[in-house]
Specification:
- The chain is 45% helix and 15% strand.
- It is of the alpha/beta class.
- It has a four-stranded parallel β-sheet with strand order 2-3-1-4, covered by helices on one side.
- α4 (101-123) crosses α5.
- It is elongated, with a radius of gyration of 22 Å.
- It starts with a helix and ends with a helix.
- The model has no long low-confidence stretch (mean pLDDT 89).
């Protein structure tokens, strides 16, 4: 079968610009070469798409998330009647959380961790990385955390896609 395949491919092989013998290559070596030679920005390392997803644990963790962080240890704005109808996109909720030392430290530490991890994932030719941040309902703490973290990563020149998966659920 191999001889027959080689015979069938001989004409194509003669017309090829590049012949790769991947017999001794790892999947990482192959992927790296394919991205460099044939990717959108041939000759450059691929850009990794980073997605930050806020979610509520009561609705389940996001499918396909690579990393998950639980922020339910933070004080819950849900228990403040003035903040309950708001979300982590609203300034009063953000201000409530910013006043908490743990919130500020969480964002700083997660941003530091991700600034360490993201280049290493990219070096492994990951084309995307999805990071889930969850609280109970996905309305307050996780939303504010994702927004603050996205700002930190943006300052570090990462392009981040933000999705608040359960925000609409909390309004119904």
């Amino acid at each position: 079968c191999i001889r027959a395949e080689r015979a069938m491919m001989s004409e194509l092989r003669g017309a090829a610009d590049l012949i790769l013998d991947t017999s001794d290559w790892s999947i990482h070596d192959i992927r790296s070469l394919i991205y460099r030679e044939f990717g959108r920005d041939a000759g450059h390392e691929p850009v990794m798409n980073v997605s930050l997803v806020s979610f509520g644990y009561k609705h389940g963790a996001p499918f396909g998330a690579d990393l998950l962080f639980d922020v339910r240890f933070l004080p819950n704005p849900h228990f403040d009647p003035d903040l309950r109808p708001l979300t982590g996109l609203d300034e009063p909720v953000r201000e409530f959380l910013r006043q908490k030392t743990d919130f500020q430290e969480l964002v700083t530490r997660l941003a530091d961790l991700l600034r360490f991890l993201l280049p290493r994932y990219q070096q492994e030719n990951r084309s995307y990385l999805t990071i889930g941040i969850g609280c109970t309902g996905g309305q307050h703490r996780s939303v504010a955390s994702v927004e603050a973290l996205a700002a930190q990563l943006g300052e570090a020149s990462w392009t981040v896609r933000v999705k608040h998966r359960d925000l609409e659920r909390s309004k119904s």
